[in-house]
Fold each of these.
Amino acid sequence: METKRTYKRRLDSLYHYLAMYVTGLLVYILFKGRIEEGSFTFLLSDPILILFTGILLFVMLYLIWSVIESKEIVLSDQSFIYRTRFREVIYPVTDILWMKAGFEKGQDHETRGGIIRMKVRSRRSPLVIRPRNYERSEDLRKDLAELRKKVKAITV
């Protein structure tokens, strides 16, 4: 880990949600619509249609915001950097008090993957990193394990 390694946030789950809600909305419109005199009509004031549309708009806005924000983690020998398009927070290795690997409570360990908690001097609560949410998650896990060894060597 001599050079800086960058891991970008994955957005594929948001694309899947968007496709799922668009498909659901179209299927619902097809089932609830009527063909009268050669034209297709449907009721815009239907509460389920409004709910589907609201969820779809929320997912679209969240996806657009996530693309604009472009979160990423940068790891180097001396620091852990959490970067977005609008800000960058640098945590030197000497400021990391501890790192713990584990699983989220109430989740299936085989399908959900693990989390890494990292306590930093400048923060009240620990940072929570979910490697499965980033590209090249296995490489990120390995690099965080190396960083954990360095933190243990410094704190002992």
Amino acid sequence: MIDTVTGVETHIGSWTLPAGTKGLKGSWQGFVEWWPFNDRKKPPTCNLLKRTTVLFGPPRTSAAGAGAGSLGNPFEVFECKGKINYKAKRVGGNVEISVGF
């Protein structure tokens, strides 16, 4: 993650598989969500989402012969679908997703 105001870069995650891992499939679906309304008795506050932009790159590995990863087309789901100013676009081999106000 790079703070575009300060320029500070922070690594926020990676997946590491144990040595000898086999049988991985060529596709996977992940998700990112903003969930400030875990109390299901209250309505979602979709309009409070601050503007956020993220650039996802394709999965990569140093494992010999593993091949290149790819990214599918992102989409919205759940309570805030259509209510958070969602935008997604391709930037080279990456996907940029922006949400919020």
Amino acid sequence: MRRDILSQFKHLPTSGEYLHRDCYDAAKKYSKDTFIVIDKLGADFIPKLFEFKRIVDLIAGKLKILPNHFSDRLMQFISNFSFNHLPGRMEEYRDKYEHHWIIEFSEEGIDEAKAFLQNFFKTMRVTFLNVMKRKLKRLFYIVL
């Protein structure tokens, strides 16, 4: 499929990520805190976040009762009390399918991709999830 897309398409994908169900689960659990920061405060806030985490870990390192990587564990613990950050349909697909391929096309390439994928998978049990730009960005946050 990859070879066909790269050699035959007029409009190539702008990005693509393969995601196994186990990776999805790990990303859902361990990346939720970072996802929320990027989604709510923007990617420009990440350097400030890591500086803050570095300071917290330096202080925590001096207190022997606190675990290593305390800032990560604290943020992950706090994020457990937050909303489910993943789209409902993506959660349904996680339960239904073991393998996921998130592929992004420019506006010009969407019809070409749909036609190809429908033909390529016509004899297989697959489902396509069409998402808008904002939701696609949110999906990529969990795999990057």
